## 1
Amino acid sequence: MNNNFIEVVQNTAISFGTSGISVVLTIGFLLLFRSTFNIVTTIKLLELANLNNTLLKRLLIEAPGIYHHSIIVANLTEVLAEAVGTNPLLASYLLLSWIGKIKRLYIFKLCEMIILIVKTLLI
């Protein structure tokens, strides 16, 4: 009876150990394949949707209106994606679609000035 208990404990320890090793290998290979083949996974989408992203922080500082607009559009798109039945994390990728405006922000400020001038001339 004592021998069977020891064997059960050994088998349990081996199964926990091998399952832990398989988890580590799976995550390691997932990261390797993701970076090698440029695969977008759910983990990558969660990383991109993080509001503490350095690019999003820079967008918040340099163009707060565009940042606010992108947050609203991403939230609306997430709700729409849930209603349609698709992956709502794909909508969070919209947050980064406005990052290009950081480099050429002067173009958008110029457009805002022109619109303001036209509005004042029409009034």
## 2
Amino acid sequence: MNSIVRPQWETVMQVFSSYNSARVTSAVVLACCLGASSAASASTVFCPPGLVCIQGGFLQYFGAVGNGDTQGGFASNPYLFQTYMNGAQVYPADPIPGLEAYFFPADPNDPGAMNTGLGHASVDLQGAQEINFWTEYDYDDPFDDPDQGVNHVVDVLNYIQFTPGPAAEVGVGDEFLLGTFAVQNGVFFAADAIHKFSFSFTTYSDDPALSGHTYADVLEHVVTPNATVYTPEQVADFFRFQGHPEIGSFRVYEYYSGLPFQGAIELWGRIGSLEPTQLVDGDPNDGVFFEQSVDPYPIDPPTPTPAPAVAVLLALGLGGTWVLRRRSVQSESRASG
């Protein structure tokens, strides 16, 4: 999301230092643990005789979330954010380094109270194969109730979905389709640029040599700063496998770009243990494209105009815009006009 889509937000910020953090940036990185044999029994999943099947899903989300009033912390304006994941409200557990002032612990005397403001959260995804996540937010002065205020916004949701590949007749070392990741690049609150989704996939077969192999990793969703000086490819948010940067990343256009902002990528691999070998873009006409790099702005980025210093940054989005609402500047402009 940028100032074209939300005119109230003004200065597009670039924050590259966040990509150096091991926490949450806006690419998808799958973080590792390959080659372990799964304790799961092949009897728990039906697979046709002589074939290999894949089953698995997402285990945990870790990243930035918002819940409640920031109490005037951002440029002297109050904001209300509520993060949702698979339909459930998400609450921050710990403050975000550098943004501690916007995390408010729950009242210890109220057993039903939740932390509010901005912070990190871990969410049990319970093996789900599809994750929907979005943010509802309210902004501007005077502060409006999110159910009543005209400034209440419910934006385009994001999703990440894994569909296992078809049962395959393969042997040890043969490459086959592990599954397909489908994504939609909507808008998500992200005070951190990287959001992490751990997952685990396991093989099932009546052949003991092919069954019980597990690929466990972390898919990092990397949110990029948006600016009109960049191409749609450069501002596309992306996903990468933390444990296997050599297979590259897959990227998805912003929803405001005028291009498709959803699509899919195939993940291929082999049993040796179970390890990924390549990403394949099966539909060049959708909103997802392959990039060998796992870093931000791999496509000849121009040198941006330096942004003014800021005290607090907000990111809105798989849409990934780093922004500052400079109310004091607006006030001075009105006064001078």
## 3
Amino acid sequence: MNLDSAHMGSITSRAVWFLLAVILGSVAALFSVQAYRAFTSKNWPVTNGVVVAFYETPQYRYSVGGRTYTNGVASCNEFWSSYVAIRNSSKYAVRYPLNGTVKVHYHPKKPELAVLETQFDSSVLLPIGGMLFFGLICFLGFLFGWPLGSRSSLSWLRETASILGNATLDVEGQEGFRNKRETDP
């Protein structure tokens, strides 16, 4: 079987688009799970705990169902960004003194997951949305076989536009998309 270079380029382009879509989708999924945990932590059961140490965040001990756990996650937002702990370390030192009693919110099915603060920072939704958007673009690149690095020809964009919306793209006039019904007699 003889494969010409254009066909090999199409296979390579599709492989790159697919790989990018998988990577972006996987990272977005991981961030989404952590953001979901952070968002739902306000509904988790609560128990009392004691601050036993302090290393950037309070290390606290608590008991659930007869088992004792030690945790160091102060804010639910630390599930998706460890920078939150570093940024708030001085506030935590004042708010959670050594040997102080704390209210611990723990995951009902995984009590080893716990937080002290449940105020969700919705700014995580922007990067998740961005990754999902670019992951979708990459998936469309895979699906439609968009070539990589070919800026001289926009035929792939014209072809995709006609498939998606029965529209044409006026590349020469740089006018953008037009509905075929507006241009056809």
## 4
Amino acid sequence: MSPSRDHWRLATHDGIELVVLGYGATIREVIVPDGENVALGFDTVAEYKAHPDDYLGATIGRYANRIAGGRFALDGRTHELPRNDRGNCLHGGSRGFDKRMWSCVRVDESSLTLGYASPDREMGFPGTLAVEVTYAVRASDLHVSFRATTDAPTVVNLTNHTCWNLAGAGDVREHVLRLDASTFTPLDDTGIPTGETATVAASPVDFRDPRPLGDSDLDHNVVLDRETGRPSRIRRAGGRSRCGRRSPASRCGREGHCTRRMTRVAASPSRRSTHPIRRTGRASRVSCCGRVTCSSRRPCSGSSGGCARLSPWP
């Protein structure tokens, strides 16, 4: 564990190492037991600031992915947001949580909690939102969990945006993927789902049989066939030398999820709707429900990047 104020290093006896930056609460490195760094990132904070649209390893908020038209209505009031992606609000706007300095709340040898207080109206979002993200390494597992409290009705959708190269080097287009997903959600020209579902046959996201990622343009929700009982898998291929820094074809494994061991591969979900947090007399907690894209054959209700869930604060 490093005592540095701008980054921290966590490790396990099983050979897992994790390096986290205070800038953006960003995962910079994930070193697996064979010594490979399988997470894409940069060496310095200055490089992250020089590539603001890469989001490598960053914590995304207040709202991961796109809000159509850069606006939403809540309790009869329309809230205007930055339109930083084809007329939509992407990843919380031009200065989302990925571009903020987070402070250390608590740390030990195997876990780190960082916090950030987002003031009312930041990037146009209502309510003050106090957010915590906890990174924990246990045996051979990496766990990421989120908490958020608000003092007013608002919307929130938190996720981590680590991009992976499971070989540690080489081209991720050689990675072989299989998904038990027969349908997906088509997008309009600005990356917003049309509200329909369609068969993956003859589409870029047809991975029902294992095949390399290749040159497919992958930025979709897939609808998992949960009844098969088989986990979706990705298998690395290619070089073994240690690398894991930015490469032209590294946008794979986007939008990793909290608390569960899963890799969300080449599926960047988008939703028109939003998920409000409401006060109930006590503060509220938002946690990740751990679903990959969508449950069964219907879209997640109201959010992308993990489906916000509301429960009373203990």
